[in-house]
Amino acid sequence: MENIFDSGTFSLIILPILIFLARIADVTFGTIRIIFVSRGMKWLAPVFGFFEIIIWLFAIGQVFGNLTNITYYVAYAGGFACGNFVGIWIEEKMAIGTLIVRIITKNEGSMLIELLRSESFGVTSINAEGATGSVKIIYTIIKRRDLEKITGIIKRFNPRAFYSIEEVRSASEGIFPPHKQRSMGDFPGFFRLVRPGK
Fold first, then answer.
1. Which DSSP symbol is given to 10?
2. Across the strands, what pairs with 41?
3. Comparison of pLDDT for 187 and 32, the residue scoring more
4. Would you give the end-to-end CA distance of the chain in angstroms?
5. Which of 41, 23, 15, 11 is nearest to 186 (CA)?
6. Nearest-angstrom CA–CA distance, 84 and 191
7. How many whole angstroms separate alpha carbon 84 and alpha carbon 77?
8. What is the maximum alpha-carbon separation in the chain?
């Protein structure tokens, strides 16, 4: 039986697949590295950058070594496209970071404030004047993993309330709901992905 590595199968099928997978890996690492840089995680970003470049060198080396094979180009480009999707998906599951949620509502805001405080969120509110009259502006600083819970509370209070969400690079103090998964570190959403049976 002809060795698969001595046949055209390796260069026509296996190597393009390896290039595709390598490109997914390096773009995913690159996406996560950029997120770590934006979050000020100066120790993790270089580690991901190291592996990102090692994998990229393998992929680009194979393409440059076979410039006449269009399959390699397709594998390289396809891996890049999929890597962006995978990187963003993983970043969403990791749910790293802190957000500020600004809520503007014309309704009486005391009920919303109580709802947020009942879930152990810190709340600051001020009275303001909007284009159509008096409004209540409510601020709360949250962990990104709590965003879905916050938006659910807002919609339950007033589906038409206006709210905006902004990234916070750092926050010195704050009131946050307790979480059971403190042992998982800063990546609870990511670790939930890899638990057995999930």
1. I
2. none
3. 32
4. 42
5. 41
6. 20
7. 11
8. 82
Structure tokens at 178: 């307790």
CB 166 within 8 Å of CB 70: no
CB 139 within 8 A of CB 125: yes
pLDDT at 189: 46
Answer yes or no: are the C-beta atoms of 112 and 102 closer than 8 Å.
Answer: no
pTM: 0.58
Measured between alpha carbons, how far is 7 from 30 in angstroms, rounded to an integer? Answer: 34
Average pLDDT of the segment spanning 68-77: 86
Distance of CA 88 to the CA centre of its chain: 5
SS3 state at 118: helix
Please answer whether residues 187 and 96 qualify as being in contact, where contact means their C-beta atoms are separated by less than 8 angstroms: yes
Give the span between the Cα atoms of 162 and 171, in whole angstroms. Answer: 24
CA 179 to each of CA 124, 153, 184, 186: distance values in angstroms, whole numbers, following the listed order: 22, 18, 10, 11
Average pLDDT over residues 191-198: 43
Task: Quote the DSSP letter at residue 138.
Answer: E
